[in-house]
From TrEMBL:
This is Sphingosine-1-phosphate lyase. It comes from Arachis duranensis (Wild peanut). One of its GO terms (cellular component) is endoplasmic reticulum membrane. Its EC number is 4.1.2.27. It is an enzyme of class 4 (lyase).
Length: 582
């Protein structure tokens, strides 16, 4: 057969197909023929959204979410749920509301003059005793009126009136910042050959801000390097809530991935979530909930092989791990000496022993930071829609969603909500920069000072861990690497134990998955380790003998929040709670 005859047989087949198809379709109305593809298109679209949702939230959560929203359509159900929710919110707020009576809401017509100091003293006296009683919270040791505390007070008063926006005038402050950044970087591998010798960074107002900056820089860096415009990041569920905030502020899709049986980041699970839009993965050393270090080296390999960023959260561990390793504790690699680590956040105001409001963000090299177009004054540039007033007046924006006790329950409210949040604004105290500088240089806080502190705190932690293990009703969650011990119980309601500890003046943190509480051990706890264990034993015995919630306790709320199948409800609850407190 030649070419033209095969063409004519093809056209014959096509014509007979056309004839039979047309005669078959002629039994349908033209309108139907028009609408059918349209419906299929819509159906395909719906199916795709459905599968996307399931991929994002899991089958169980999607079905539950769907079920919950359908149930709420039944008349009366929504109002019933809202009433119940309001009851919980009222209970959570009952404390705060009654205390607000008599609070000033307007400027007084005549000033108090120096009497204001008396007033402030009076109010300060009413604060609860935190000395030695709070998990984390205050990391500096000793009494508030002497030692390192009073040194800080004096340093603060010396620089309280400088203005760091004018570094040409206040050159000392610029020098202090640069030195604190350099000293901290050196502690975290910047001088090792494998770091590349290019590590740079800046001071910030806290771990949250350091994380926000690192995430934003990673996003912009990946955009310029790989052209990613619909960025996604992957974090273990144990990571701090600052990443949720970053995802919302900077429009990044966030994947929270379960941890492995040792409560560490599950590298394989993270790998499964990597796609062409992934900009960043995160590891903590250690994570805040259980004090366990993620496998940073494996995460580094993963990040390098995909050419994406890896942020290491050293907010808690930065000023402990280098010294703990020196003391002989088994600490796996966690800093810039690890290939693939692109940025690090480290809190000077935690184990660095500076006052609250100082942290550092470090980048492996200038490339990563440079693309991020925030100007020199990091704190003023980072929020993409800060209010003009705050920018103009040179304030640090310091978002703190005040729900720390239930921190690990928090699904952070979305950014629409944020615009209505009270912003706690601290003027950017150069003092804070200064303090960390001072403390780092002062003889007792040179590297030997940190080494000694770490030794003391690690030993106190090991004693607490051993004491808890000796209480047969309790178990320690995972194997704590540092100075945090999380513990739960298979036989008691651990949140009831927590309520009893609260009634004894302790402030511990409640966690879920599994239900547990933790103590973040600081220098403040060193003298009271045995008191803590005695109180804990007593509380466990009380709960064992009289199980059931104590009046005014939070156990029922924590318990319920842990059990709530629909995470959306927990989020709603928290939004209502916070909305009511401002
Ligand atoms: C404390 C902490 C942060 C940041 O908290 P800030 O209160 O904003 O300083 C981030 N990650 C971890 C692991 C932390 O412990
Ligand atoms: C941030 O760091 C860079 C280099 O380390 C420095 O030039 C800059 O002044 C720092 N920013 C601020 C606000 O100090
Ligand atoms: C964000 O929160 C606001 C206020 O609570 C709510 O109206 C809005 O629907 C929320 N948006 C999303 C995307 O969840």
């Amino acid at each position: 057969m030649d070419y033209s005859s095969s063409l004519s047989s093809l056209s014959f087949h096509f014509n007979s197909f056309r004839a039979s198809a047309n005669s078959f379709l002629s039994q349908y109305e033209p309108l139907l023929l028009l609408l059918a593809p349209l419906f299929s298109l819509i159906l395909a679209h719906l199916l795709r959204s459905f599968f996307n949702l399931i991929h994002e939230r899991g089958l169980k959560a999607s079905l539950l979410g769907f079920l919950m929203s359908s149930v709420k359509l039944i008349p009366g159900v929504k109002s019933y749920i809202d009433r119940e929710k309001q009851k919980v919110v009222d209970k959570m707020q009952s404390d705060g509301k009654s205390k607000r009576e008599g609070w000033r809401t307007e400027l007084p017509s005549t000033g108090l003059g120096t009497l204001v100091l008396e007033k402030m003293k009076e109010e300060k006296r009413k604060d609860v005793a935190w000395q030695g009683k709070c998990s984390g919270t205050v990391y500096i040791g000793g009494s508030e009126i002497d030692g390192h505390f009073s040194l800080i007070n004096e340093a603060c008063s010396m620089f309280a009136h400088t203005n760091p926006l004018h570094l040409d005038v206040f050159q000392s402050v610029g020098r202090f910042e640069a030195e604190v950044v350099a000293m901290t970087a050196a502690l975290l591998g910047s001088q090792e050959k494998s770091s590349g010798g290019q590590v740079c960074g800046n001071m910030t107002s806290g771990g949250t801000e350091s994380i926000l900056l690192a995430v934003k820089s990673s996003r912009d860096y990946m955009k310029s390097k790989k052209g990613i415009t619909r960025p996604e990041m992957i974090i273990p569920v144990s990571a701090h809530s600052a990443y949720d905030k970053a995802a919302q502020y900077f429009n990044i899709k966030l994947w929270r991935v379960a941890v492995n049986k040792d409560f560490q980041a599950d590298v394989k699970a993270i790998r499964r979530h990597i796609n062409k839009n992934t900009i960043l993965i995160v590891g903590s050393a250690p994570g805040f909930p259980h004090g366990i270090i993620d496998p940073i080296e494996e995460l580094g390999q993963l990040a390098s092989s995909f050419g994406i960023c890896l942020h290491v959260d050293l907010c808690l561990g930065g000023f402990v791990l280098p010294f703990a390793r020196e003391l002989g504790y088994p600490i796996p690699p966690f800093d810039f000496s690890v290939k693939g680590v692109s940025s690090i956040s480290v809190d000077v105001h935690k184990y660095g022993l500076a006052p609250k409001g100082t942290s550092i963000v470090l980048y492996r090299d200038h490339e990563i930071r440079k693309v991020s177009h925030w100007p020199g004054h990091k704190v003023l540039g980072i929020f993409e829609a800060p209010t003009e007033y705050l920018v103009e007046s040179g304030f640090v924006l310091f978002f703190r969603i005040s729900c720390d006790p239930i921190h690990q329950f928090v699904a952070v409210p979305n950014s629409t909500y944020l615009s209505g949040l009270p912003m706690i604004c601290f003027p950017f105290l150069p003092v804070l920069v200064l303090n960390s500088w001072y403390m780092a240089n002062q003889w007792s806080f040179c590297s030997t000072g940190y080494l000694e502190n770490t030794k003391t705190i690690m030993e106190a932690t090991k004693r607490i861990q051993k004491g808890i293990e000796e209480i047969s009703e309790l178990y320690v969650v995972g194997r704590p690497d540092m100075t945090i011990v999380a513990f739960g119980s298979n036989v008691l309601d651990i949140f009831e134990v927590n309520d009893l500890m609260t009634s004894k003046g302790w402030h511990l943190n409640a966690l879920q998955r599994p239900n547990s509480i933790h103590i973040c051990v600081t220098l403040q706890h060193v003298p009271v380790v045995e008191d803590f264990l005695t109180d804990l034993k007593e509380s466990v015995n009380t709960v064992k003998e009289n199980p059931g919630p104590i009046s005014g306790g939070l156990a029922p709320i924590y318990g319920a929040a842990g059990k709530m199948p629909d995470r959306g409800m927990v989020q709603d609850l928290l939004v209502d709670y916070m909305d009511g407190t401002c």
